[in-house]
Amino acid sequence: MNRVGSSVWRRFSSSTSSPTFVVKPAPAKARHHVQIPDTSFPHGYSLTGVHCGVKKNPSVLDLTVILSTSSKPASAAACFTRNAFKAAPVLVSQDVLEKSAGRARAIVTNSGCANAVTGKQGLEDAWAMVKATDALLPQRTKSEANKDIHDTFVMSTGVIGQNLPISKILSGISSLVPSSLGSDFAAWERAAKGFMTTDTFPKLRARTFNLGGRMFRMAGMDKGAGMIHPDMCPPTNPGQLHATLLGCILTDAAVSPQALQSALTHAVDRSFNSISVDGDMSTNDTIVVLANGAAAGETKEIEEHDPLFPAFRDELTSFAAELAQLVVRDGEGATKFVTVSVEGASTFTDAHRVASKISTSALVKTALYGEDANWGRILAATGSVPLSAPIDPYRVNVTFVPADGSTPLPVLVHGEPEQVDEVRAKEILSAEDFEIKVDLGLGSESAQYWTCDFSYEYVRINGDYRS
Question: Of 81, 133, 197, 244, which one is the catalytic site residue?
Fold first, then answer.
């Protein structure tokens, strides 16, 4: 059988004149990796990415270390996968967050091996990575010292069910000296590259923002291209079950641990928990935020009741959404970036559930790849979701919205099908970016999801992922 690299496939058919199907290549994605001015990165962080030997190719980075260099431990918050088979680094990082009362100073990440479903050895290896990175930090004062408290979050990504080459990783961590870490764009770029598995570009962003008349900075990196359908929550909220998504966001603003966790939980529901490449939740999904206050001077930490808190929460949410969208744009084999907007729902949860169902439907996603305006599949997905209020089919509208600002194309209006201009529909769906808008006509709540199509390349990548 021909591999996907061929440009043309022939459909199986009893007809001797069976049609052919052109395999579309994924658009170039390197353009999403951009140079960022050094002045945009938050103060008080030193970081790098190195090759330690998890991956065979010595030119590929596979270990990232991030240190907060401020005088006090940073406020920390995190959201973790709800998967029942939580990887060892997830369990260890949850423990670090709980016992430190939301204070930390470092993050260590390896790529190439997920350290998931690895039993007791996996936990020992994850703790070894934490302790080795702790050793790079200034020693806590006697009043702060506690053998049960650690300063480092640990994350891993790669193949599930294999043990880490822990001696190589520990050697890589211990070999780092202050001069090998940095705070300029090159250092941040190396750190982002150390996260990558099947990613085609390092996902790195930074911005400045104003709170109370003072300028702060926020930067972050994440990774992910496959096994992407996160459903993360704080460690105290196990919730229900829903290539891995890992990410970290660092800021030099001063925010208390409780307020930071509240802001992150809000942000994750509207960003990382609102993306899907293939509908599969990883064992390792983790998002960590550190706020070290390095640019806050003597200003008190923002609390949840503070008037500045909503502005910080919304800034974090917007930034998290920007990072999350990069994962979808780099979806394995993806040729489309599609925004699924659900409006007119009774609750945010209802809107989010419908958007999720549409975004994960294999029939919808294959139609997106074929640039086929098969809106019946969108309705079928919408109608299969149990909601707090029943859907009235005669209130529902479905519209394809082009990204270039040109006229949208309604295909269903108040439950009645429109006479669809198939040429116009093809024109919209042939673009890399567009939106599917569904109005349920039930209320005022809305939610968005970001998804991509299913292509032949996705099958090829995941058919031989371990080889």
Answer: 244
* C-alpha closest to that of 289 among 277, 310, 272, 275: 272
- What's the predicted TM-score (pTM) here? 0.88
The sign of the CA dihedral 378, 381, 384, 386 is negative
Separation of alpha carbons 321 and 270, rounded Å: 7
pLDDT over 70 percentage in the chain: 89
Q: Which two tokens stand for residue 110?
A: 């390896």
Q: Do 172 and 63 form a contact (C-beta atoms < 8 A)? A: yes
pLDDT tens-digit series, residues 41-94: 999 999 999 999 999 999 999 999 999 999 999 999 999 998 899 999 999 999
| Torsion sign, CA atoms 157, 154, 166, 161 | negative
User: If you count them, how many residues does the chain have?
Assistant: 467
Distance CA 255, CA 77 (A): 10
**Reduced DSSP (H G I as helix, E B as strand, rest coil) percent helix, strand, coil of the chain, to 5:** 30, 25, 45
3-class DSSP state of 20: strand
Question: CA 63, CA 168: separation in Å to the nearest integer?
Answer: 10
Could you tell me if 137 and 106 are in contact, meaning their C-beta atoms sit under 8 angstroms apart?
yes
The pLDDT mean for the chain works out to 90
pLDDT digits (tens, 9 = 90+) for 411-449: 999 999 999 999 999 999 999 999 999 999 999 999 999
DSSP 371-428: T---HHHHHHHHHTS--SS---GGG-EEEEEETTS---EEEEETTEE----HHHHHHH
Q: Is 244 an active-site residue? A: yes
